[in-house]
Specification:
This protein is α+β, with helices and mostly antiparallel strands and 398 residues long. The chain is 65% helix and 10% strand. A hairpin with a 5-residue loop joins strand 4 and strand 5.
Length: 398
Amino acid sequence: MTLPRPHRHDVLLAVASLLAGLVLWGLGVYSSGDRNLFPDWAALVPLAVLAALELVRRSAPRVAVAIGTLGVIADQFTVGNLATVLIFTDLMYAAVVYGKPAMARRLPVSTGLITVAVTIAAVAWLRTPQALLIGVITGIVSFAPALTGATLRNQREAAVAARLRAEQTALLAEMDRAQAVVAERARMARELHDMVANHLSAIAIHSTAALSIDSPATSREALGVIRENSVQGLAEMRRLIGLLREAGAEQEAAAVPSLDGLDALLGRARTNGSASGLEFVLHDDRPPGEPLPAPVELAAYRIAQESLTNALKHAVPGTVTVRLTRGPTGGGMLTVQVDSPYGDRSGPRAPGSGAGLIGMRERTELLGGEFSAGPAGPAGSVWRVRAALPAQEKAVRA
């Protein structure tokens, strides 16, 4: 296995340690001058070995500690060099900081146990107070650097974990922001479609009638309806632009339509659908005096509005019925049901994109309600749109 190039700090540390040890040896400063088992120069061998191990203190800390332990033990049989002992303490520190997690956990515990064992053995053998110094030196050389390395490593890991949590929090915040933007764009698309589609559908139907029927009276009536819907559509667009520019809660609350405006809505539908043979009837069976949450009232109004728009586009001549009901005691569901004649239609027809049904379903599901649309009645002669919305503020917030 090829080891990576030593870090430049480790190279400088190895060179400085070796030079410091050579200076101490040259000055005759020994850590154990009373040991003459080997010549004085023998103390340079452990010094050189441990100085070389500084080069792999990051890349191979396990090997550095193992060989370094043998080297510092061998140094005790020579005159000794203080630099050799200091290098060993750095190797022990580096093993905890740069080693694997298992080594980082074990070394402080094992060196602590070794320090205790050496202290007990020295006191039992020598039986003098000075024997405690052997345990203290052992702790300084092995346990202290291991404990220091463990403390630094824990701080680094805590800092990394905190940074990761901050990055995850920022990522979640960005995801929430993106989802909020998407939801707001979808809400604006639904609002724009519901506000303008009714008027544009009436314009398309009556302009087609004016072009296809060669009658001055019919053309004049169609142009009148077209002008009225153009003016109303322009007013709705200005209101929406005002909402986007002004974020004040009072302005928004004042601009939100309510079910009290259904009479006016059906009045416009009667005007727009008269040429197609359509009649519009409203049955409001709700108990009086029971207010609705603003989101529910807006959704019910928009669903009725879009259903009337679809009736103008696709319904055959007949009666379009809008029915509002509410469950007992005010805690039930507000039901909006629109029945329009269904069948093959002749004459002017406005094109549809299918976005209206999607928008009504989205409005209903966002409030936790149920939505359905499709043929109903005898032989499927009625197209029924039905939305059941929660009538309680608590249900809406959930």
